[in-house]
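Q: I have two molecules that I believe assemble together. Could you output structure tokens for the complex as a whole instead of separate predictions?
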Amino acid sequence: VKARTNAEWLAALRAEGPQQTAALIELRAYLLRASRYALSRSLSVSVAPAVVKHVAEDAAQEALSALLQRLGDFRGDSRFTTWAYKFAVNTALVAARRERWRHRSLDRVLDAPDLGQRLGAVPVSADPERRVLQTEVLTALREAIDTSLTPRQRQALTAVVVDEVPLDELARHWGSNRNALYKLLHDARRKLRTHLRARGLDARDVLDAFRDDR
Amino acid sequence: MELSALRRLLQRIGDTEDAEISCAECFDLVSQYAELEAAGQADAGTLPALQRHLGQCGVCREEFEVLRDLIRLDR
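A: Yes, here they are, computed for all two components at once.
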């Protein structure tokens, strides 16, 4: 079968009758393929095949609705099928993260000791020169976290950056959304960067002091 | 805290820009970038704001990588 061009996809999806139906069936098959692939990459093999199948089909269906609502946004800067895939990859991976975190308590992760406190427990080097720089950085970082961040920024930064909680899972838990949470973290990082710079420290430059030497 | 977590925190702070694009803006650009990457045509100067977002946002990065690999499989 000859692949459709971008223009042919758009025309068929905007048409009515059998032409549109055929395009929708073909598109749904593309989305299902993308969502199955995304789940195969991200869900553990221990998840039951029936569950994976169900999640893949739901994700493809949700992706199809989202895509059709945004058809007018397609600008043609990629193949239409690539543009379509990203909707399925997004919905499938959001669902996979939800599945992965279903049995883990986010509340427990969020109740972890405060970030400042945890920085106090970072093992410092036995090498005296590195130890001095490490202590200086840890002290400045702790001070920046304790004085310039809101409790919510501290909690989000700890969960997402330190404990690697997926952004969309935390957003869902808090009744927020991915964009808002990204912005909250961005504001927090900016404050920390500014605070460290005021003390003559660039977070990138001091990374080397914390390479693993054990 | 593990050293790896501390390094991740410092890296993200150090790479912070005054202006960064949102996850929604990343989603708008990622199909274009994923095709360029899959074709080996992307470098550091390609869609830099998007690349910086992918450096900061683990979930957008995961979605980008799966999309890029899916495009490669289709070739």
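A: One point stands out. Chain A has a mean pLDDT of 93.
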